[in-house]
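Input:
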Amino acid sequence: MGNLDQTLSENIRIMAVVIADICHRSTLQMASPVNLTRNQFTILKVLSTEGDFQISDLARLLDISNAAISKNIDRLAQLDLVARQTKPGDRRSLDIILLEDGMKILREFDRILGEKQEHLMDQFSIQEKENLLDLVKRVITFTLAEEQDTELICLQCGGNCGDTCVIDSCKGLCSLPEKKISLRQSVGAKQGSSDWSPDKK
Amino acid sequence: MGNLDQTLSENIRIMAVVIADICHRSTLQMASPVNLTRNQFTILKVLSTEGDFQISDLARLLDISNAAISKNIDRLAQLDLVARQTKPGDRRSLDIILLEDGMKILREFDRILGEKQEHLMDQFSIQEKENLLDLVKRVITFTLAEEQDTELICLQCGGNCGDTCVIDSCKGLCSLPEKKISLRQSVGAKQGSSDWSPDKK
DNA sequence: GTTTAATGTTAACTGAGTTAAGTATCGACC
DNA sequence: GGTCGATACTTAACTCAGTTAACATTAAAC
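Output:
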């Protein structure tokens, strides 16, 4: 029944855009008093997970250059969201640490997302949720299996999904910070064309 | 059962990123011999739907400036994917028309997406698909209802889902080209920070 | 026939990325 | 202990896709 396949595929794609684009953007806008780019937000999110992160770690994780991270940290530091802290052992390295104001934005983001999620989840019975979860997991794993570039930071779980995460490459960040090398080779945060900057209109 | 809610929400978000980001990017890269930005691809996609489109229509639809559209059309015209055609009635206006090479890219994109989709759909029984469709539609409508900025071009259906489209504001484009004014107020294609440009590494 | 509005292009600018060069520190080796 | 290469970060110059503002050209209104 090709038509069902078609409709379902389309609706899955629409859902993806709605969640990954519209919902994320609006939540971030609500959560933060200042405009943050997607990458700046991702940096905060990474810093909120366990482990120490330096400029080059962040560059590797977000797959952008050290120079770009450095500039983003300038911006975030200027907003008092993060700070550079020289490492005791090695005076070349800097640990980037998340400050209270940065945490506040993340907490607010999670709170808003949590609220939206709560309302959404109220729609479904437990049976339906379990059903949907199973189907969603299968969509994810199957879709990723078809792709070459499957490394990414999902970070949707706040770094605590551990071994239950469906994303193989995520597990490193979620539960094993020491494995943080070379995640997300290709879910690039490349030079910008369109969607993810703060709205300036 | 808060934990199920949490897990399900996370997995929905992960699925969204996987589909909207990774899958779209890789498909576009496979489909097009030249690097197209997300907006350039969206322009092609819009042009492939029914109706005549001028610079200002496209600007309104993508929510970027006339000047930006003009430059994008320069680029697409230089690649022989589209052409400017002076309108008989009004010599100020230009109809932007999709050329064969442009259509070829769209066809190839759809073909690849169709293939991926076919494999994915093989995973599910008809019962499961109907189930999933229902749940997905509810996620979409509910999520959109919570958002203020719900205007968007989804264009996932290729412009032919008509009244069955779950996206109210989409219907204009899918089935009623004359309503093409002011779709997508805010699913911005704003100045760029991060993800959607062709990969230059 | 002149003024006003609409359409599209050009020019100057912005912001977030890039690469390449520069600075400082560390570790190793003679 | 001094030099040399590697590592970590920053700075500078550039690119690219947006922006706004000024400018042609054409159409419409009075």
